[in-house]
Design goal:
The protein is an alpha+beta fold and about 425 residues long. It contains 16 helices and 11 strands. It folds into 2 domains: about 200 residues, Metalloenzyme, LuxS/M16 peptidase-like (Cytochrome Bc1 Complex, Chain A, domain 1, 2-Layer Sandwich); about 200 residues, 2-Layer Sandwich (Cytochrome Bc1 Complex, Chain A, domain 1). A hairpin with a 4-residue loop joins β9 and β10.
Amino acid sequence: MEETARLTETSSGIQVITEQVPLVRSVALGLWVRTGSRDETPAQAGVSHFLEHLLFKGTASFSAIEISERFDGLGAAFNAATGKETTHLYARFLDEYTDEVFDLLGEMLLESTFPDIDSERDVVLEEIAMYEDEPSDRVHDYLADAIFGDTPLGRRILGKADVIANIPVPDIAEYHRGRYTAENLVVAAAGNVDHEQITALAERLSPEHNGDRVPPTVVEPLPGGRLEFAVKDTEQYHICFGGPGINRADERRFALAVFDSILGGSSSSRLFREVREERGLAYSIGTYSEQFTDTGAVATYVGTREDNVEEVCSIIGREYQRIRTEPVSVEELDRAKEHVKGRLVLSGESSAARMNRIARATLHGIPLLTLDEMLAKVDAVAVEDVTELASQLYAPEHLSAAAVGKDEERFRESVGPVSEALVS
């Protein structure tokens, strides 16, 4: 753990972690819940995200507009986010308002009265509709479904419109009571913070208890690869290739970050150069990875016009094969390492990024490494580590494909260079 990071558990079981950031006057504060869309049944699809919206609608003390006015009056920037494994409320503000902001976030998190629920249903339904109209966003969900199938990790965070339209308030309140418990809560703060002050404020929270922390149901990726296609009259084909990855505690995550920078995660990466810079076949192309408690995913995204689909897929398939079979050069490896190290150092200069990092480590029981320890792990990545990851994660038999566009047959006939198994 970093020397400036401190961890305490309150009498009710809430974990409190803080990190002092020298020479700043602000605080980044997050109240995190170890729950997200992977904790939902199909009948609850989207309730975690819907509940996050409802936390802003009012408490016994404040209406929705009064909450907004109070945050504005404290000079705070505030918001919330829902993922597949976490939900959190967060704010950034001047250190002198720590007590006021903490108490307001705590009341929102645990004491929402769920008023105006029907109007917020409409807001979330509009959000889902907007998302459906964005194929560059939607294609990532199709890929998740291809990799994980009808499991919590294969379903989208926003859920289903019919669930949101009909789920009753008592069911939402029951989900809130069952998941927003002391055992599932982490309070994280970074910036000009006093650990004892944050701990004392957390002691005032009164969440429910449900006993021991319940780990999520283990999800296994589907064997082999699958192809999913959504027909939509779009100017571009929005394409994703990917497969199972590694979990968030896997020590190879540092090698994966370097590998990702080489393949498609930087402006000097192989795919960016070949597809965009050399041939002008796409504006947006890149790789990314996701890590969960028990598994993960790796993926490549590209948006390109219909006439370019075949050539783009051919280039991607060729680069996949090359990085699997040919060791990367020392020069390329060193450049990727410096890219990853630079991002780590730059993120460390943001109190919000630090708050996110210490919160996630605490939520998921991952050792909190110092910056120097992380940089050392990046430096230790060898050429063989990159080749091994490429061989495992980008083997053709493990790869799935997803796309949104006009003609499924055209896309299916183009994916052979990535994986022949996806053609049939």
